[in-house]
Design brief:
The complex is a heterodimer of chains A (278) and B (575). Chain A is mainly α. Chain A contains 10 helices and 2 strands; from the N terminus they run αααααββααααα. In chain A, strand 1 and strand 2 form a beta hairpin. Classes of the chains: A mainly alpha (278), B alpha/beta (575).
Chain lengths: 278, 575
């Protein structure tokens, strides 16, 4: 029941990716993000995207399990591309230093090969980072995530808060479904036929009980934690802590090497952009 | 037994946000190894007393303290909560909500993690304590996935791992099915014997706690200690009813039979009652009560016709369910946690669709009827009122469903006022909901459903967590609604509720309907009791021990008699 609608929460499975420690996954994820954010090099980005698909396969996560999130992100990306084009139609021309016109809408809005290539790179960038971010979320046990954050010198209070939040995503989703159902029974219409205004009002009718029941939940859990001595010392130890294995070191060293190569390749362009128009 | 481990001296506590002190002049001594029940209706201060013991007062709940509380001989009025957690382990009411860890093992280890116990030492300690409470086979499971009884063990292990001397249980039975509750009491008892820990249980379900022996009952009311005595003395004195606590049903039966109880009769346990002296009065009383006529069969309202439901076509949750609810009935759906009871409700409301079979309302198939259309005839009230209330004012909340259905303003006002009168909420009609008590909020949610004029009212655990006074209030209200022609179907764990208020019990176990019968017969069938995690009633044992030939009839007659008594009492108080 609980697994039916979960977005972005941990999916338990036995795969080589799951077996890596949280620290390894966090390090790889951070390096990956830095490289993909810095580089606009199409070659680097395409390689990274292929690699991310390979890792997905290794992690045995099915497409259907993350489809909703992917669709959401896809729509968001299209909107993003559109706004970039509307506000800055000549961005690609400025970056790549040439102007190959394909066709023209109006005086301001021309479609150039350079702009299309730029937008392609932007989209590609997200498609390399987002799957890895998703993968990181669904393959990392929230407690282990907290544990690895503290190893990277983040305060354990902060990291535990993050972990608890991740854990409760599922419960809050279940609450949401229960509340939504009972409110629908009272006549709140959330279906597509209802006018947008009614749907927004309807959502408010769900949000309020959801907030109040979540507040109850928070009071309970914070009392339970206090009663068992949470935060009595400056640091804490972790039950789920696991020793680093050979695979972890291979993963980290591999990620560092790949990141160095990727940055190196990017820099040979003399900038962040790979320019096929020159 | 020389030094008290907990000692309150002229202790009072006043919450910052409250007008009056919640605890007044508490004087209490608890000695090592004692097993104590803290009893009292909601609002009596028993939970606050618990908070003052485990340190949530003043750590989390702020307020004014006077007098002293000493733990192990040292005054601890403002000792840090962490120092107390070394000595006192608290098991909270909601076993799902109190789990912090992602797995059973991690949850047990939580206190050790906070104490910076090294990983190498932590693992064996967790394993040892898991073995002590017999949960060591589930260390890798998620706490939410294990059964109700196992959850209790996980919660216990989580405080025992710290090697505490005192265990405080805050309403441990509130969310458990009857058999699991009974099991929890046995587990606590076993622990008390084997480890010699001091045990404090805060509870209002007296009969369930008395399943195993306890040393003392502390009865609280309005922030004061009313009685501090052995269970036998407290029960024989008869003061419990005055303070809104339900006495065990077998004692009510004895009173009805005109038997005067003394502490020497050992009233705390049905098996220790002096059978020779109670046999005659019980038998005479049994023969004297008349049996009311059974009523004629009524029209069909809701029918389940061979309904099966499974998630993803694999996990079968409900298997070939058949039953019929007739107009004007008040029935209960019972069974253990996770047996499929809430799924049954979801099917009725249309939140889920049967995989096969048909649900009919007045003979018409509901298969293609939308949630909203069903809601015109079937009103569903969730367990937690906070999950239903979405408006600030009572009037708005109750009128919401009508407004969404486009009913005219004047008509809404008329119907809302009418419903508020029925629900006894009319005097509060212009109040904000936040100013109401939990029981009143529950009424608001029922009112908000009633205003839609359904034929069937479906309630999920209508009295969960309520003390006897509120329980009676809610149930009598439902009886009143039923008299107005409403059909009522309830999902419940409460055996008393089922016995006293319903005429039919539909028992679900592991997705199957295993019994559909009058409650007294259900509760006399050992195999049904076992499969559905129900519990035998003390009444039945009383009947068997006093040699009544047909114990089921005894239970049934007791219930009928009790209903009539309640009816008389109602008429006396309302006129």
């Amino acid at each position: 029941m609980a697994s039916k609608n979960n977005l972005l929460s941990y999916i338990e499975r036995n795969s080589p990716v799951h077996r890596l420690t949280g620290v390894t996954k966090l390090v790889v994820f951070l390096l990956w993000t830095i490289v993909c954010m810095v580089s606009y090099d199409t070659r680097v980005l395409i390689c990274a995207m292929i690699l991310s698909i390979v890792i997905f396969l290794i992690a045995r996560i099915r497409l259907s399990e993350i489809r909703t999130v992917l669709i959401f992100i896809g729509v968001f990306l299209l909107l993003n591309d559109l706004t970039i084009y509307l506000f800055s139609p000549e961005e690609g021309v400025r970056i790549y230093g040439s102007r190959t016109i394909l066709f023209q809408f109006s005086e301001r809005y021309t479609v150039t090969k350079e702009q299309l290539f730029y937008l392609f790179n932007v989209t590609l960038k997200y498609f390399t980072v987002v799957p890895i971010a998703l993968l990181f979320l669904v393959t990392t046990d929230p407690s282990e995530f907290a544990c690895s954050l503290t190893r990277l010198k983040v305060s354990f209070r902060v990291s535990y808060a993050v972990s608890i939040t991740l854990r409760y995503i599922n419960d809050v989703q279940n609450d949401y479904h229960n509340i939504a159902q009972s409110q629908q029974a009272r006549g709140i219409d959330l279906s597509r036929e209802a006018p947008l205004k009614d749907r927004i009002v309807g959502l408010a009718g769900i949000a309020i009980p959801l907030i109040f029941s979540s507040l109850d939940r928070i009071e309970l859990i914070s009392n339970a934690m206090d009663l068992r001595g949470f935060g009595k010392k400056e640091r804490r130890t972790w039950y789920c802590e696991r020793p680093m294995t050979r695979n972890d070191w291979i993963g980290i060293i591999g990620a560092v090497l790949l990141a160095a190569i990727a940055i190196g390749v990017t820099l040979t362009n003399g900038g962040r952009f790979y320019n096929p128009f020159r | 037994m020389n030094h008290p481990v907990i000692e309150f001296n002229n202790f009072s506590f006043h919450y910052r946000s409250q007008a009056k002190p919640t605890l007044t002049d508490i004087n209490l001594k608890v000695y090592a190894g004692e097993k104590i029940l803290i009893l009292g209706p909601s609002g009596s201060g028993k939970s606050t007393l618990g908070h003052c013991i485990n340190g949530l007062v003043p750590h989390y709940y702020k307020g004014q303290i006077s007098g002293t509380v000493a733990i192990s001989g040292t005054v601890a009025n403002d000792a840090v909560i962490y120092d107390r957690s070394k000595k006192i382990g608290t098991v909270l009411q909601d076993s799902d909500g109190q789990f912090v860890g992602q797995t059973v093992g991690e949850d047990i280890a939580f206190a050790l993690e906070n104490d910076c116990v090294p990983h190498a030492e932590m693992i064996p300690r967790v394993e040892a304590v898991a073995k002590l409470v017999d949960i060591d086979g589930h260390l890798k499971s998620k706490p939410q996935q294990v059964s109700g009884g196992q959850k209790q063990r996980v919660a216990l292990a989580g405080v025992l791992v710290d090697n505490v001397d005192i265990l405080l249980f805050d309403e441990p039975l509130a969310n458990l099915d009857p058999a699991t509750g009974q099991y929890a009491i046995e587990l606590i008892d076993q622990l008390a014997r084997e480890t010699h820990k001091t045990i404090l249980i805060i509870e209002h379900r007296l009969e369930d706690v008395l399943w195993r022996e306890i040393d003392r009952i502390i009865l609280m009311d309005r922030g004061r200690i009313i009685a501090d005595d052995t269970p036998d003395n407290v029960l024989a004195s008869g003061i419990l009813r005055e303070y809104g606590i339900r006495e065990p049903l077998y004692l009510t039966a004895l009173r009805y039979a005109g038997f005067e109880l003394t502490p020497q009769d050992r009233p705390a346990s049905v098996s220790k009652l002096p059978i020779e002296s109670i046999r005659a009065p019980i038998q005479n009383w049994y023969r004297s009560i008349s049996v009311p006529e059974s009523e004629a069969r009524r029209d069909e309202l809701l029918t389940f016709d061979d309904v099966t439901f499974s998630y993803d076509d694999r996990r079968v949750v409900l298997n070939h369910i058949d039953f019929t609810i007739r107009k004007g009935e008040m029935s209960a759906i019972v069974g253990k946690n996770g047996a499929g009871k809430s799924t049954l409700c979801k099917l009725i409301c249309g939140f889920e669709t049967p995989s096969s079979g048909e649900i009919r309302l007045r003979g018409d198939s509901l298969n293609n009827v939308s949630i909203r259309r069903r809601a015109d005839s079937i009103g569903y009230v969730m367990q937690n009122p906070n999950q239903m209330i979405s408006k600030v004012m009572i009037r708005e909340e109750v009128g919401l469903g009508l407004k969404l259905r486009g009913v005219e303003e004047s008509e809404i006002n008329r119907r809302v006022e009418e419903v508020l009168k029925i629900c006894g909420l009319y005097p509060f009609r212009n109040w904000p909901i936040s100013a109401l008590s939990y029981g009143q909020k529950k009424r608001v949610t029922i009112a908000a459903i009633l205003v839609l004029e359904p034929d069937l009212l479906l309630l999920d655990e209508p009295t969960a967590g309520q003390d006897f006074r509120h329980y009676t209030e809610i149930m009598e209200f439902l009886v009143d609604l039923r008299r107005r022609g409403l059909t009522i179907l309830m999902v419940t764990h409460d055996m008393h509720l089922m016995l006293e208020y319903t005429e039919r019990a539909i028992v679900i176990a592991d997705g199957e309907l295993i019994r559909d019968d009058i409650p007294s017969r259900v509760l006399s069938d050992r195999s049904v009791i076992e499969r559905a995690n129900l519990k035998e009633t003390g009444l039945l044992e009383l009947a068997q021990r006093t040699g009544i030939p047909e114990p089921i009839r005894f239970v049934q007659r007791f219930i009928d008699f009790d209903r009539q008594e309640r009816e008389k009492w109602r008429q006396k108080t309302t006129c």
